[in-house]
Amino acid sequence: MMRGMGNMQGMMKQMQKMQKEMAKSQEDLNAKEFFGTTNGDLVKVTLTGEKKMKDIAIKPEAVDPDDIEMLQDLIILATNDALEKVEVETQAVMGKYAKGIPGL
After folding, report:
1. DSSP string, 32-88
2. How many angstroms separate the Cα of 40 from the Cα of each of 31, 44, 49, 77, 104?
3. Stronger pLDDT, 6 or 30, i.e. the higher one
4. Helix (H, G, I), strand (E, B) or coil at 102
5. CA–CA distance from 53 to each of 4, 28, 66, 90 (Å)?
6. Model confidence pLDDT, tens digit, residues 58-99
7. What are 78-82's contacts with CB under 8 Å, separation 24+?
8. What is the pLDDT of residues 44-62, one digit of tens each?
9. How far apart are CA 40 and CA 6, in angstroms?
10. Which tops the pLDDT comparison, 45 or 7?
11. Which terminus of the chain is less hemmed in, N or C, by CB atoms within 10 Å?
């Protein structure tokens, strides 16, 4: 009976260690910056790992008062590009913790 308890304590310690590692990885990911751009870098968006927009840079040649829709499309493209990069990095960093955990 004691042998089973020792094994359970070992598993709990491993889980606590993994929780700490996951929290640190998430913290590092949140602090990282991700850049999304359009063709020609007319619009460049900077997001954090928490998917919060930190900055946007728009080149003057992207601004045409007669074609606001194009600028809107460029902003959407750059933002989606950055969001995709955040998602890929999140899966690469955090996905390793889900391996081996049943149900995830």
Report:
1. -EEEEE-GGGSEEEEEETTS-EEEEEE-GGG--TT-HHHHHHHHHHHHHHHHHHHHH
2. 27, 10, 24, 12, 40
3. 30
4. coil
5. 50, 17, 27, 16
6. 999 999 999 999 999 999 999 999 999 999 999 998 888 877
7. 78/36, 78/37, 78/38, 78/43, 78/44, 78/45, 79/36, 79/45, 79/47, 79/53, 80/36, 81/36, 81/37, 81/38, 81/45, 82/34, 82/35, 82/36, 82/45, 82/46, 82/47
8. 999 999 999 999 999 999 9
9. 60
10. 45
11. N
Q: CB of 62 within 8 A of CB of 69?
A: no
Alpha-carbon gap, residue 35 to 72, rounded angstroms: 17
Of 75, 77, 55, nearest to 63 by C-alpha is 75
**Structure token digits, residue 29:** 């990911």
| Locus of tokens 């991700």 | 34
Length of the chain: 104
Tokens of 35: 């850049």
* Tokens found for residue 74: 């460029």
